[in-house]
Automatic annotation (TrEMBL):
This is Armadillo-type fold. It comes from the Eukaryota. Pfam families: ParcG. It comes from Pseudocohnilembus persalinus. Residues 1-13, 54-64 have a biased composition (Basic and acidic residues).
Protein backbone atom coordinates (compact mmCIF):
# COMPACT_ATOMS: atom_id res chain seq x y z
CA UNK A 1 0.00 0.00 0.00
CA UNK A 2 1.08 3.54 -0.70
CA UNK A 3 1.74 5.76 2.30
CA UNK A 4 -0.16 9.03 2.56
CA UNK A 5 1.59 12.22 1.78
CA UNK A 6 1.98 14.92 4.48
CA UNK A 7 -0.62 17.07 2.72
CA UNK A 8 -3.26 14.31 2.84
CA UNK A 9 -2.57 13.71 6.53
CA UNK A 10 -3.10 17.39 7.32
CA UNK A 11 -6.45 17.43 5.46
CA UNK A 12 -7.71 14.38 7.37
CA UNK A 13 -6.74 15.86 10.74
CA UNK A 14 -8.44 19.16 9.90
CA UNK A 15 -11.65 17.34 8.87
CA UNK A 16 -11.69 15.31 12.09
CA UNK A 17 -11.25 18.43 14.24
CA UNK A 18 -14.15 20.19 12.48
CA UNK A 19 -16.48 17.23 13.07
CA UNK A 20 -15.63 17.13 16.78
CA UNK A 21 -16.20 20.89 17.06
CA UNK A 22 -19.64 20.63 15.40
CA UNK A 23 -20.58 17.73 17.68
CA UNK A 24 -19.53 19.69 20.78
CA UNK A 25 -21.63 22.73 19.72
CA UNK A 26 -24.70 20.53 19.13
CA UNK A 27 -24.45 18.96 22.60
CA UNK A 28 -24.06 22.41 24.17
CA UNK A 29 -27.17 23.71 22.40
CA UNK A 30 -29.25 20.77 23.63
CA UNK A 31 -28.11 21.29 27.21
CA UNK A 32 -28.93 25.03 27.08
CA UNK A 33 -32.58 24.29 26.17
CA UNK A 34 -33.09 22.06 29.23
CA UNK A 35 -33.79 23.74 32.61
CA UNK A 36 -32.19 21.75 35.32
CA UNK A 37 -33.99 21.90 38.68
CA UNK A 38 -31.68 23.06 41.47
CA UNK A 39 -30.33 20.21 43.52
CA UNK A 40 -31.83 21.70 46.69
CA UNK A 41 -35.34 21.51 45.22
CA UNK A 42 -34.77 18.03 43.81
CA UNK A 43 -34.24 16.69 47.28
CA UNK A 44 -36.98 18.73 49.04
CA UNK A 45 -40.56 18.99 47.78
CA UNK A 46 -42.55 22.21 48.23
CA UNK A 47 -45.42 20.12 49.58
CA UNK A 48 -43.29 19.24 52.60
CA UNK A 49 -42.97 22.89 53.64
CA UNK A 50 -45.20 24.08 56.54
CA UNK A 51 -48.34 26.00 55.56
CA UNK A 52 -48.71 24.28 52.18
CA UNK A 53 -51.33 21.52 52.17
CA UNK A 54 -51.96 18.97 49.53
CA UNK A 55 -55.49 19.01 48.10
CA UNK A 56 -57.53 15.81 48.52
CA UNK A 57 -57.72 13.67 45.41
CA UNK A 58 -61.52 14.19 45.12
CA UNK A 59 -61.16 17.97 45.23
CA UNK A 60 -58.33 17.84 42.71
CA UNK A 61 -60.47 15.80 40.32
CA UNK A 62 -63.35 18.26 40.74
CA UNK A 63 -61.08 21.18 39.89
CA UNK A 64 -59.82 19.34 36.83
CA UNK A 65 -63.40 18.88 35.61
CA UNK A 66 -64.67 22.37 36.39
CA UNK A 67 -61.46 24.17 35.50
CA UNK A 68 -61.98 26.57 38.46
CA UNK A 69 -64.97 28.13 36.67
CA UNK A 70 -67.15 28.51 39.81
CA UNK A 71 -68.03 32.10 40.62
CA UNK A 72 -67.61 33.52 44.15
CA UNK A 73 -71.34 34.30 44.20
CA UNK A 74 -72.23 30.63 43.69
CA UNK A 75 -72.06 30.04 47.44
CA UNK A 76 -75.23 32.13 47.88
CA UNK A 77 -77.31 29.93 45.58
CA UNK A 78 -78.13 27.47 48.36
CA UNK A 79 -79.52 30.15 50.69
CA UNK A 80 -83.30 29.85 50.92
CA UNK A 81 -85.18 33.07 50.31
CA UNK A 82 -88.75 33.67 51.40
CA UNK A 83 -91.29 33.89 48.62
CA UNK A 84 -94.03 36.42 49.60
CA UNK A 85 -96.55 34.56 47.43
CA UNK A 86 -95.61 31.02 48.41
CA UNK A 87 -97.36 28.77 50.89
CA UNK A 88 -95.33 28.32 54.05
CA UNK A 89 -95.55 27.52 57.73
CA UNK A 90 -94.87 31.14 58.63
CA UNK A 91 -98.55 32.05 58.29
CA UNK A 92 -99.01 32.33 54.56
CA UNK A 93 -100.82 29.04 54.01
CA UNK A 94 -103.70 28.69 51.59
CA UNK A 95 -106.28 29.67 54.23
CA UNK A 96 -104.56 32.58 55.94
CA UNK A 97 -105.58 36.21 55.61
CA UNK A 98 -102.16 37.09 54.21
CA UNK A 99 -102.46 34.51 51.43
CA UNK A 100 -106.06 35.43 50.55
CA UNK A 101 -105.26 39.15 50.41
CA UNK A 102 -102.21 38.61 48.19
CA UNK A 103 -104.33 36.43 45.93
CA UNK A 104 -106.82 39.30 45.47
CA UNK A 105 -109.52 37.90 47.75
CA UNK A 106 -109.96 41.22 49.59
CA UNK A 107 -110.90 43.99 47.10
CA UNK A 108 -108.94 46.82 48.72
CA UNK A 109 -105.47 48.19 49.20
CA UNK A 110 -103.53 50.45 51.52
CA UNK A 111 -103.07 54.09 50.57
CA UNK A 112 -100.42 56.22 52.23
CA UNK A 113 -101.78 59.63 53.11
CA UNK A 114 -99.81 62.64 54.27
CA UNK A 115 -100.11 61.76 57.95
CA UNK A 116 -101.61 58.25 58.22
CA UNK A 117 -102.65 55.14 56.33
CA UNK A 118 -106.16 54.58 55.09
CA UNK A 119 -107.98 51.81 53.29
CA UNK A 120 -108.93 52.32 49.67
CA UNK A 121 -111.46 49.96 48.13
CA UNK A 122 -110.96 48.90 44.54
CA UNK A 123 -112.68 50.97 41.89
CA UNK A 124 -116.36 50.12 41.55
CA UNK A 125 -116.59 48.32 44.92
CA UNK A 126 -119.69 49.11 47.01
CA UNK A 127 -119.38 47.88 50.60
CA UNK A 128 -123.12 47.26 50.83
CA UNK A 129 -122.83 44.88 47.87
CA UNK A 130 -119.90 42.87 49.21
CA UNK A 131 -120.26 39.23 50.16
CA UNK A 132 -119.76 39.33 53.93
CA UNK A 133 -119.34 35.59 53.78
CA UNK A 134 -116.43 35.01 53.29
CA UNK A 135 -114.83 38.50 53.16
CA UNK A 136 -115.79 39.68 56.65
CA UNK A 137 -115.05 36.26 58.14
CA UNK A 138 -111.61 36.33 56.55
CA UNK A 139 -110.97 39.80 57.99
CA UNK A 140 -111.95 38.61 61.47
CA UNK A 141 -109.52 35.73 61.13
CA UNK A 142 -106.87 38.25 60.08
CA UNK A 143 -107.23 40.27 63.30
CA UNK A 144 -104.45 38.17 64.82
CA UNK A 145 -102.00 39.25 62.10
CA UNK A 146 -99.04 41.16 63.49
CA UNK A 147 -97.23 41.99 60.25
CA UNK A 148 -97.75 45.23 58.39
CA UNK A 149 -99.83 45.95 56.39
CA UNK A 150 -101.96 42.84 56.94
CA UNK A 151 -102.90 43.72 60.52
CA UNK A 152 -104.08 47.17 59.41
CA UNK A 153 -106.01 45.82 56.40
CA UNK A 154 -107.82 43.14 58.41
CA UNK A 155 -108.81 45.62 61.13
CA UNK A 156 -109.82 48.53 58.90
CA UNK A 157 -111.68 46.36 56.41
CA UNK A 158 -113.71 44.66 59.17
CA UNK A 159 -114.42 48.02 60.84
CA UNK A 160 -115.74 49.68 57.68
CA UNK A 161 -117.88 46.68 56.76
CA UNK A 162 -119.44 46.58 60.23
CA UNK A 163 -120.09 50.33 60.20
CA UNK A 164 -122.07 50.11 56.96
CA UNK A 165 -125.76 50.89 57.57
CA UNK A 166 -126.92 47.63 56.03
CA UNK A 167 -124.35 45.43 57.77
CA UNK A 168 -126.69 44.02 60.44
CA UNK A 169 -128.78 41.85 58.12
CA UNK A 170 -125.61 40.37 56.59
CA UNK A 171 -123.70 39.86 59.82
CA UNK A 172 -126.37 38.09 61.89
CA UNK A 173 -126.42 34.92 59.71
CA UNK A 174 -122.64 34.51 60.04
CA UNK A 175 -122.32 35.68 63.66
CA UNK A 176 -121.24 32.27 64.92
CA UNK A 177 -118.34 32.28 62.43
CA UNK A 178 -117.22 35.72 63.62
CA UNK A 179 -117.23 35.16 67.37
CA UNK A 180 -114.52 32.53 67.54
CA UNK A 181 -111.83 34.37 65.56
CA UNK A 182 -112.74 37.52 67.52
CA UNK A 183 -112.26 35.63 70.78
CA UNK A 184 -108.87 34.42 69.55
CA UNK A 185 -107.81 38.01 68.84
CA UNK A 186 -109.03 39.15 72.28
CA UNK A 187 -106.86 36.45 73.84
CA UNK A 188 -103.76 37.45 71.88
CA UNK A 189 -100.77 38.69 73.88
CA UNK A 190 -99.88 41.39 71.34
CA UNK A 191 -101.05 44.82 72.56
CA UNK A 192 -102.04 46.14 69.13
CA UNK A 193 -103.95 42.97 68.26
CA UNK A 194 -105.85 43.15 71.56
CA UNK A 195 -106.77 46.82 71.15
CA UNK A 196 -107.95 46.26 67.58
CA UNK A 197 -110.04 43.30 68.70
CA UNK A 198 -111.73 45.40 71.40
CA UNK A 199 -112.63 48.06 68.84
CA UNK A 200 -114.02 45.48 66.40
CA UNK A 201 -116.02 43.88 69.22
CA UNK A 202 -117.69 47.26 69.87
CA UNK A 203 -118.48 47.65 66.17
CA UNK A 204 -119.92 44.14 66.08
CA UNK A 205 -122.21 44.89 69.02
CA UNK A 206 -123.41 48.10 67.36
CA UNK A 207 -124.13 46.18 64.16
CA UNK A 208 -126.11 43.20 65.49
CA UNK A 209 -127.44 44.56 68.83
CA UNK A 210 -129.05 41.94 71.10
CA UNK A 211 -128.24 39.16 68.63
CA UNK A 212 -124.79 39.08 70.22
CA UNK A 213 -126.16 38.32 73.70
CA UNK A 214 -125.86 34.54 73.42
CA UNK A 215 -122.18 34.90 72.53
CA UNK A 216 -121.18 37.44 75.18
CA UNK A 217 -119.91 34.83 77.64
CA UNK A 218 -117.43 33.57 75.05
CA UNK A 219 -116.13 37.09 74.48
CA UNK A 220 -115.88 37.93 78.18
CA UNK A 221 -113.52 35.04 78.98
CA UNK A 222 -110.40 36.62 77.38
CA UNK A 223 -111.51 40.18 78.25
CA UNK A 224 -111.72 39.78 82.03
CA UNK A 225 -108.13 38.52 82.16
CA UNK A 226 -106.92 42.06 81.52
CA UNK A 227 -109.59 44.05 83.31
CA UNK A 228 -107.22 44.74 86.21
CA UNK A 229 -104.58 46.10 83.85
CA UNK A 230 -104.66 49.90 84.09
CA UNK A 231 -103.49 50.12 80.50
CA UNK A 232 -106.70 48.53 79.20
CA UNK A 233 -109.22 49.13 82.00
CA UNK A 234 -110.92 52.18 80.48
CA UNK A 235 -111.19 50.59 77.03
CA UNK A 236 -112.58 47.37 78.52
CA UNK A 237 -115.26 49.21 80.50
CA UNK A 238 -116.18 51.21 77.42
CA UNK A 239 -116.67 47.93 75.56
CA UNK A 240 -118.77 46.46 78.38
CA UNK A 241 -120.96 49.57 78.48
CA UNK A 242 -121.67 49.25 74.76
CA UNK A 243 -122.57 45.57 75.21
CA UNK A 244 -125.04 46.50 77.94
CA UNK A 245 -126.58 49.38 75.96
CA UNK A 246 -127.11 47.20 72.89
CA UNK A 247 -128.08 44.02 74.75
CA UNK A 248 -130.24 45.23 77.62
CA UNK A 249 -130.53 44.24 81.27
CA UNK A 250 -129.77 40.58 80.63
CA UNK A 251 -126.30 41.52 79.45
CA UNK A 252 -125.65 43.50 82.63
CA UNK A 253 -126.35 40.39 84.71
CA UNK A 254 -123.99 38.34 82.54
CA UNK A 255 -121.23 40.92 82.88
CA UNK A 256 -121.61 41.30 86.66
CA UNK A 257 -121.47 37.52 87.02
CA UNK A 258 -118.00 37.61 85.48
CA UNK A 259 -116.91 41.01 86.83
CA UNK A 260 -118.67 41.72 90.17
CA UNK A 261 -117.23 45.24 90.39
CA UNK A 262 -118.68 46.27 87.03
CA UNK A 263 -120.95 49.32 86.92
CA UNK A 264 -122.28 51.23 83.92
CA UNK A 265 -120.99 54.77 84.28
Amino acid sequence: MFSKTPLERDKKITSTNQQQKIKTQTVAQKQSTQITQPQSLQKKSLLNKPGIKKLPEEETKTQEKTGFTNKPSDKFKNIKCADPFASSKSGQNAGSFMYIYNAGGIPCRVSHGTSKLYLQWNQGVDISQLNYDPILITCFEGLVEQKHPYNFIAYQCAKEMLEDEQSGEKVVPILQKLVWPLRAALGNSNDKVYENALEIAKCLSNSVGPNLNIHIKNLLVPVIRKVQNKKYRDKIYEFLNILEENGGSDVQKTIKASIPTYTNC
